[in-house]
């Protein structure tokens, strides 16, 4: 009977760990049951790590990063920029100047002035890279400037950051260009894909700004990526030579 009870406790602990780590967070339930399942979860975690669970997770994240990069930067004519690959990284800190820190650096091939995106769209660019961490300047930073193209009309312009509002300002070069709320904005792309690769979603037009006699047409854009809740991102880096 005692052996059966121990096995049931261990099985329950395994089930909680699997659900928590693969399906959905169970923080409240885990906290409430920690006294019962703590020992079992610890034991299972040790076994999982010993079989390379963390390495497998990292491998899957790297593969996912590569697929995300391909999906968001591929046009009908083929890849937007060749000779690049995606590196998975987690956001581990927020800066005061519209920047975040990620847990991948030069050791993973991350360098300055390369694109950072997530599953939804453009996040920013690498502004500094250490050996194991790097800083990302977000597109909402006041100094941010991204060449842009309207996904529908193909009209060209520039997107700049509006700190404090969480929005972007779109400036189209043609003051008579067609523009309406709901239009999608994507990156124009830079030479060699640095700092920005082409065709990455930037955001959606929310408000058309009316300035009579202006030489350009402007609008407010809501970023496609939820920049206040970043987690897993992809850094587009040059493929290693050789």
From TrEMBL:
**Entry coiled-coil feature ranges:** none
Record's family? Belongs to the MreC family.
Keywords linked to the UniProt accession: Cell shape
According to its UniProt entry, the protein's GO biological process terms are: regulation of cell shape
The record lists the organism as Nonomuraea cypriaca
Query: This chain belongs to which protein, by name?
Result: Cell shape-determining protein MreC
Q: Which GO terms describe its cellular component?
A: plasma membrane
Q: Which InterPro entries match?
A: Cell/Rod_1, Cell/Rod_MreC_2, MreC, MreC_beta-barrel_core
Rod shape-determining protein MreC beta-barrel core domain residues are 97-236
One Pfam assignment: MreC
